[in-house]
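Quick one: examine the sequence and fold tokens given here and explain what the tokens say about the fold. Here goes:
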Amino acid sequence: MVESVFISLDTVAPPSNTQVTVLDKNDPPTIGQTTLSIKENSPLGALAGNIGAVDPDVGSVLTYSLLRADTPDAFRIDATGSFIVKSAVLDFETKSSYVYKVQVSDGVNLVPADITITLLDDNDNVSGAVLHGACAAFIALRWCGIIRTPWAFLERTLAS
């Protein structure tokens, strides 16, 4: 409640007090982050990020829910607005981003938003390239008759 005092400058009317009541309306929450990212091959339970919802009304408690999950459904949202890995496989080469529709509520207002989670590509082919090169070298040397057994190839490779 806000109290205001008005004083009349008119000499005929006596001064008076007026009381004004201001009612606060419930403001909707806002979502700060709609784009999150996480490295591919992240383990179960890893944090992709928080959507950072806030409510300007003091004392509001926010709740989060998924309205629509992507396919495959690789993430869950927790009570604080954080997206957590729930799938065993996050592979950039198979799927590079996920889109979820979430809803944030302060108990009165419902605010929907699309959240995009982008996978960051990890160089997961390094060991395969080295192995591939070693196999190609072994096949070439064997074809030329330089190596007769795989053991000789391993001895030469380990010695160098």
Summary: The chain has two domains: 30-120, 126-159. The chain has two helices and eleven strands. Residues 30-120 form a domain with the Immunoglobulin-like fold (CATH 2.60.40.60). The first helix runs from residue 126 to 143.
